[in-house]
């Protein structure tokens, strides 16, 4: 340990003696954004008796930056969603980690599988129609898919009454909009999505990307960046490859016991659980002893949890030049013909090839890398299907849409996410379902107290955020909420 770090730790320990009169053990389950946020806030406030148990062999959770042919790419969270009132942004303004240019780097231009020309102006116009319709949607008992389609079809019938060609393209674009809404929600169908959640606070301002990947934000939280000499003493508190399988608590002041799959056991006065809603849905029955109360179980069942797949492919050259990417509109005829034209790989319920789910292609700036998002019913199959078929299908589809404009080489390296298949996540994010209510997220975030009204178990994580769920911001805020409750408890006494 460097002398500086040693002195820093002593200072921290002194701080602990001065401000917090407790050294009770705190166990945090999960080293994702919310777990790291809880731990860093506690450390900054003098709590030192902390253990973070993480099931994966790495920290970060749904923040997962990897290197691909020399470029940092994110298999999980990618954008710093909104600047205004965003703790993520506020923490970083001076650190120069964000790439402000990336918010402009969204593909605008639409391409049709029939290769009919769609002008740049009409592409922009379509996007504006989408925005207008989407922004005007109100709360309803009908699904987002139903409400959107009804309003959108009405809108384009009026707008393009005398322009049948435009009307036709706008109509075929319905599939694109469905995919786009699934990309942000993670739901497998827009008919399973609530039309609008009045509690959700929209992102304000730009959504920049990261220069070195989202993981740099966690480094900043842990104060490893910009100068490792100032880092919080967190490394030795994180225990990797520790999957918690049972949390046993009582109604009296006895410590909570935490059992891991490798049979190691921990005890703690306080526990903060940050596992994804997907994990809670799958494991809630076996994870807690005694069982959670009815309101929590109901919340865990009701709130939606879904998944997208991110697939990155590298090329020997940047054949798309400086374009930010491509939007694909499949015509009904080409969708129907897809499985006879490209026969390999899974098919959807309508018998169409998986390639019809290729609709959104992003160019990663300053690289030879393209990113495709897959959403919908075939997510699990796409996470596990043969890599060669995936590469060939992408190449086939890029050619179908763009082959008359570009000479497209075969992709070289392919990497993809597997959030849905990974039992430490079971998906990418939570969403408002047709049955979830605003009370559900609140109930999930309510701590479990013992008979003395002492904090025993708290729940944090993206899904417990009422206003910013499904984002890193929501995860961080929920982690701070859990830490603040503990700080308040011990400052008081
Ligand atoms: C593909 C994708 C794209 C996204 N894009 C964006 C974006 O652009 N902008 C944005 O703001 N957000 C985005 N998000 C959402 C954002 O990543 C999440 O909301 C946030 O990272 C969740 O953090 P968390 O701490 O709540 O959960 P997690 O990151 O899931 O952390 C929980 C941790 O607990 C661990 N764990 C689970 N079960 C156990 C157990 N039993 N024992 C021990 N450890 C366990 C997990 O391994 C994990 O590390 C995206 C997510 C994905 C997956
Ligand atoms: C589409 O546009 C390109 C130029 O952008 C032009 O060369 C081509 O002829 C057009 N095709 C059709 C079918 O209009
Ligand atoms: C990596 O990128 C370089 C250009 O920076 C490119 O020439 C090379 O073909 C790429 N390699 C792979 C395997 O993608």
**Span of the ends, CA to CA:** 34 Å
The CATH C-level name of the largest domain is Alpha Beta
Question: What would you call the structural class?
Answer: alpha/beta
> In what order do the strands lie side by side in the largest sheet?
8-2-1-12-22-21
Bound molecules: flavin-adenine dinucleotide, 2-acetamido-2-deoxy-beta-D-glucopyranose
Helix tally equals 15
Instruction: Quote the average pLDDT.
Output: 91
CATH topology of the largest domain: Polyamine Oxidase, Chain A, domain 2
What does this entry look like structurally?
This protein has 493 residues and is an alpha/beta fold. It has two domains: 3-64 and 233-305 and 429-491, 3-Layer(bba) Sandwich (FAD/NAD(P)-binding domain), CATH 3.50.50; 110-205 and 309-416, Polyamine Oxidase, Chain A, domain 2, CATH 3.90.660. The protein is built from 15 helices and 22 strands. The strands form six sheets. Strands 8-2-1-12-22-21 form a six-stranded mixed β-sheet, covered by helices on one side. It has a six-stranded mixed β-sheet with strand order 6-16-17-18-15-19. A hairpin with a 5-residue loop joins strand 17 and strand 18. The longest helix is centred in the last third of the chain and has 21 residues, at 472-492. It is globular, with a radius of gyration of 24 Å. The chain binds flavin-adenine dinucleotide and 2-acetamido-2-deoxy-beta-D-glucopyranose (2 copies). Residues 69, 314, 316, 368, 412-413 line the site of one 2-acetamido-2-deoxy-beta-D-glucopyranose (NAG).
């Amino acid at each position: 340990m460097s002398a500086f770090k040693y002195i820093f730790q002593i200072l921290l320990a002194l701080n602990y003696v001065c401000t917090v009169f407790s050294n009770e053990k705190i166990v945090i389950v999960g080293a994702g954004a919310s777990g790291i946020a809880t731990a860093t806030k506690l450390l900054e406030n003098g709590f030192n008796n902390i253990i973070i148990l993480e099931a994966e062999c790495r920290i970060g959770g749904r923040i997962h930056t990897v290197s691909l042919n020399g470029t940092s790419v994110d298999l999980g969270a990618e954008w710093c969603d909104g600047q205004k009132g965003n703790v993520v942004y506020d923490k970083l303004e001076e650190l120069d980690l964000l790439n402000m240019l990336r918010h402009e780097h969204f593909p605008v231009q639409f391409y049709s599988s029939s290769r009919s020309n769609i002008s740049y102006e009409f592409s922009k116009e379509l996007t504006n129609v989408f925005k207008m319709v989407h922004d005007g949607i109100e709360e309803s008992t009908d699904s987002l898919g139903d409400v959107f389609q009804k309003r959108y079809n009405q809108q384009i019938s009026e707008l393009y009454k005398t322009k049948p060609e435009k009307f036709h393209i706008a109509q075929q674009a319905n599939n694109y909009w469905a995919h786009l809404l699934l990309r942000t929600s993670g739901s497998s169908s827009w008919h399973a999505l609530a039309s609008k959640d009045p509690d959700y606070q929209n992102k304000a301002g730009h959504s920049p990307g990261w220069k070195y990947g989202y993981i740099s934000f966690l480094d900043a939280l842990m104060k490893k960046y910009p100068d490792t000499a100032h880092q919080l003493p967190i490394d030795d508190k994180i225990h990797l490859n520790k999957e918690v399988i049972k949390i046993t608590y009582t109604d009296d002041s006895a410590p909570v016991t935490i059992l891991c799959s490798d049979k190691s056991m921990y005890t703690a006065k306080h526990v903060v659980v940050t596992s994804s809603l997907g994990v809670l849905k799958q494991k809630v029955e076996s994870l807690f002893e005694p069982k959670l109360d009815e309101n929590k179980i109901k919340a865990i069942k009701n709130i939606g949890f879904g998944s997208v797949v991110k697939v990155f492919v590298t090329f020997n050259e940047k054949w798309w030049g400086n374009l930010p990417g491509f939007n694909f509109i499949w015509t009904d005829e080409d969708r129907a013909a897809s499985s006879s034209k490209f026969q390999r790989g899974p098919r959807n319920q309508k018998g169409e090839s998986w390639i019809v789910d290729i609709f959104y292609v992003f160019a990663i700036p300053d690289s030879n890398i393209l990113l495709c998002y897959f959403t919908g019913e075939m997510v699990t199959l796409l996470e596990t299907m043969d890599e060669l078929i995936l590469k060939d299908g992408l190449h086939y589809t890029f050619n179908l849409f763009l082959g008359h404009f570009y000479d497209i080489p075969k992709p070289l390296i392919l990497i993809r996410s597997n959030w849905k298949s990974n039992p430490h996540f079971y998906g990418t994010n939570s969403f408002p379902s047709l049955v979830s209510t605003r009370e559900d997220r609140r109930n999930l975030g309510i701590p479990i107290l013992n008979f003395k009204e002492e904090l025993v178990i708290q729940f944090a994580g993206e899904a417990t955020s009422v206003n910013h769920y499904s984002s890193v911001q929501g995860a961080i805020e929920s982690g701070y909420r859990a830490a603040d409750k503990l700080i308040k408890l011990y400052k008081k006494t």
